[in-house]
Amino acid sequence: MNKSINKANEGTLKRYEDLIKKSSSKGQRISAIRRFIEHLNSIEKSVTEVNHSHVEVFLEEEFEEREETKQKKKKTTINNYYSFLKAYFKYLKTTHENTDIDFDKVSIERIKNTIFRIYTDEQVQEFFLLVDRIENTEIKLRDSIFLQILFYTGCGLKEARDIFVYQVESDLSSVEYENYIVLDKKILHFNDSEREFILYDNLVSDIRKYQQMRASKENEGKVRAKDYLFWSYYKGKYNHISVGSLQRDITKIKECSSFKDEKLSIINIKYTVIKNLLKSYSVDEVSAIVGLDISKIQMFVNTRAGITQDSNFYSQHPFMKFLIPPTSETLI
C-alpha cells in the first residue's frame, strides 16, 4: 500500500466533494468516485496517471461484481458511474491534476454489452507464471489457488470467494447454502447449481499449505475443521477476503502482463473455460460443468460434435498443462 498515493488520490476526492456540495446527486457521485479511488489505491495508481483503460477496467469490475451477485439495474449503475467519472475527470483537467486522459475513449457500450473475448493458451500460462513471481509466499499461494479454481471449474468470482473448506467429510455440518471443499474426499461442491468437481492432488496440497500458513499466525498452528478458503491479512488480523480485493489482485497481475492493454478481465476467464471445454464436451455437459443456461453456452458454439464426458474430469481438462507444473506427479 502506497500511503502517499492514497493521500493524494483521496485529496482530489475531498476537493471535488467540496465543489459539488450543493448537488442533489452528491451522495451518489461521491460514492461512485470513492469506489474508483479505492480501486486506484489497491493497484497503487495515482489519479494523475490514469488513462481511459484504467477507467474501463474499473467499470468492468463493477459490472462483473453486479453480474456475480445478480444485482438489478447493473447497466443503469454503470451508466451513472461513467457519467460521474467523466465529470470528475473534467474537474481534474481544470485543476491540471490529469490533463492527459481522453475520457471519450472509454468504451461504455462494449462493457455493457460484454464482448465474449477469450484468453489464449499463452496468456493463461503467463497468468500462472506471473503469480509464481509474487514475493509474498502466502499471497502467491492464495492467488494461485484462486486462479486454479477459476480456470478449472469456470466458476464465478463470488462463487470462489464464498468457498468453505472442511478437513474431513465428518466435519460437514449444515451445508444447504454453502459452496465447500472436503479435503479428504478431494471434492469441490457449488450449492447453487449442485455442481461437484473431483480435485487434483496439487490443488489439494496447495490448499493444505495455505491453510497451515494462516494457522501458524493464529489459532496456535491448528487448522480449523471448517473455515473460509480465501483470506486477507491486514494489521496483524485475518479477514474473509472481499470480492473487490480478489478482483484487484487479478487486475494487478494483469497490469504486469504482456496483454495488459487488451480488453480482458476476470469474467473472460469463465468465457475462456467455456470455449475450451466445448472442444471436448457437449453443450449440455458444459452447461452442467459451469452452471450456465444452455442458451448462454450456445453463444460460444460454432459447429462441433458432442463428446462423452469422462468420469475423471481433470483427465481431459484443457488447462491441466497450466494448472499442474510439468515436474509434478499427476493423476492423468
**First CA to last CA: what distance?**
41 Å
Portion of residues within helices: 40-55%
Radius of gyration (Å): 21 Å
By secondary-structure content and strand pairing, the structural class works out as alpha+beta
Percent range for β-strand residues: 5-15%
Describe how the helices and strands are arranged:
Layout: H1 3-19, H2 26-42, H3 52-68, H4 74-94, H5 108-113, H6 121-132, H7 137-153, H8 157-161, E1 163-166, E2 179-182, E3 187-190, E4 195-198, H9 201-217, E5 226-228, E6 231-234, E7 237-240, H10 243-255, H11 267-277, H12 283-290, H13 294-297, H14 320-323
Can you describe this structure?
There is one protein chain. The chain has 14 helices and 7 strands. The protein has helices at residues 3-19, 26-42, 52-68, 74-94, 108-113, 121-132, 137-153, 157-161, 201-217, 243-255, 267-277, 283-290, 294-297, 320-323; strands at residues 163-166, 179-182, 187-190, 195-198, 226-228, 231-234, 237-240. The chain has a 5-stranded mixed sheet with strand order 4-3-2-1-5. A hairpin with a 4-residue loop joins strand 3 and strand 4. Helix 7 (137-153) packs antiparallel against helix 9 (201-217). The longest helix is centred in the first third of the chain and has 21 residues, at 74-94. The radius of gyration is 21 Å and the shape is globular. Residues 303-311 and 326-332 have low confidence and may be disordered.
Give a short summary of the structure.
This protein has helices at 3-19, 26-42, 52-68, 74-94, 108-113, 121-132, 137-153, 157-161, 201-217, 243-255, 267-277, 283-290, 294-297, 320-323, and strands at residues 163-166, 179-182, 187-190, 195-198, 226-228, 231-234, 237-240. By secondary structure, the chain is α+β, with helices and mostly antiparallel strands. The model is unreliable at 303-311 and 326-332 (pLDDT under 50).
